[in-house]
Amino acid sequence: MSQLLEVSGVSVSFDGFKAINNLSFSIGPAEMRAIIGPNGAGKTTFMDIVTGKTKPDEGSVLWGDMSKNLIGMNEAKIARIGIGRKFQRPTVFEDQSVFENLLMAVKNDRSPWSVLFFKPKFKDLAKVEALASEIGLSDQLERKSGELSHGQKQWLEIGMLLAQDPQLLLVDEPAAGMTLGEREHTTDILKEAAKTRAVVVVEHDMDFVRRLECKVTVLHEGSVLAEGSLDHVTQNKDVIDVYLGR
Ligand code: ADP
Q1: Do 206 and 109 fall within a single domain?
Q2: pLDDT at 188 over 70
Q3: Which residue from 69, 59, 79, 74 is spatially nearest to 5, judged by alpha carbons?
Q4: Domain count of the fold of the chain
Q5: Which residue has a Cα nearest atom 7 of ligand 1?
Q6: Where is the ABC transporter domain (predicted)?
Q7: Distance 53 CA to ligand 1 centre (A)
Q8: Ligand 1 center to 55 CA (angstroms)
Q9: Secondary structure of the chain: what % helix, strand, coil (to 5)?
Q10: Is the pLDDT of residue 114 over 70?
Q11: Per-residue pLDDT at 244
């Protein structure tokens, strides 16, 4: 299968400490992938590298038809070529409604006044409605985002990222702070999103990872320790040792 993202031999050190150490793995075009690993394994640094926030010392991150190397591209350009990142804390506009937040994202214009002053185009409204339905907030469109539950804010932010039609969505610990019901809905949203794009989820919660029903990559000390189904990796002796701190 051709790949969407291919990380090869990537290393980065901070003050002589190798946070990412000869990391290599790849993600397919409409693939869901979970990345797990103990604290300090390099999960955040990996996402920082892919999104252009951190420049590695060595290696390449090839993208799309593999003719583009993301290393050296700035964050804005990487976002434009189709990589969206959801941080752990939602960053929606709390004073604006769900509708207004989604419309701003669809129009890719983050200034509320310019978005709301002009009458929205039919195609933008249709996209807002489709996104609201995808994230399960169709009945909340008029609500101020600040009044939403934690889970609903997370879904709204996922919807705002999907509005940009990313080919790869990186999601950092989506289950944190969510109720069981919210987690289940989040899994549904991410699975639906992964039908048409790659979705990479960094997550500690193993029940959540299990529900994603996807290939799992285990990072440890900045490298891939194991890869495969969740059952496969959790039976791996090296993974058990790392998680139990042996
Ligand atoms: P994870 O997300 O898996 O918990 P991180 O990618 O945050 O791991 O960190 C990997 C290692 O790199 C950790 O030991 C962390 O302390 C170190 N590290 C990450 N970013 C920096 C930085 N900017 N300066 C110094 N050390 C860092």
Answers
A1: no
A2: yes
A3: 69
A4: 2
A5: 44
A6: 5-246
A7: 13
A8: 14
A9: 40, 25, 35
A10: no
A11: 73
pLDDT bin (cut points 50, 70, 90) of residue 26 is very high
47: CA distance to ligand 1 center in Å? 11
Instruction: Indicate if the pLDDT at residue 147 is higher than 90.
Output: yes
- Give per-residue pLDDT as tens, 207-220: 999 999 999 999 99
Residues 74 and 27 in one domain: yes
Can you read off the two tokens belonging to residue 105?
A: 């994202």
**Tell me, what DSSP letter sits at residue 120?**
P
Residue 122 lies in a domain: yes
Closest Cα partner for 98 from 160, 154, 140? 140
Query: Quick one: 75 and 109 in the same domain?
Result: no
Question: Domain check: are 73 and 189 in the same one?
Answer: yes
Here the tokens at position 102 are: 């989604």
83-86 and 168-172 strand pairing:
parallel
Are 35 and 78 in a shared domain? yes
In sequence order, the 6+-apart residues with CB closer than 8 A to the CB of 33 are 27, 198, 199, 200, 201, 214, 215, 216, 217
Q: Tell me if 125 is assigned to some domain.
A: yes
Give the domain range for residue 213.
Answer: 5-90+167-244
Instruction: Check the CA dihedral 102-106-112-117 and report its sign.
Output: negative
Q: Which of 62, 28, 23 is nearest to 41 (CA)?
A: 23
Give the binding-site residues of ligand 1, using a 6 Å CB cut-off: 14-15, 19, 37, 39-45
User: ipTM of this predicted complex?
Assistant: 0.96
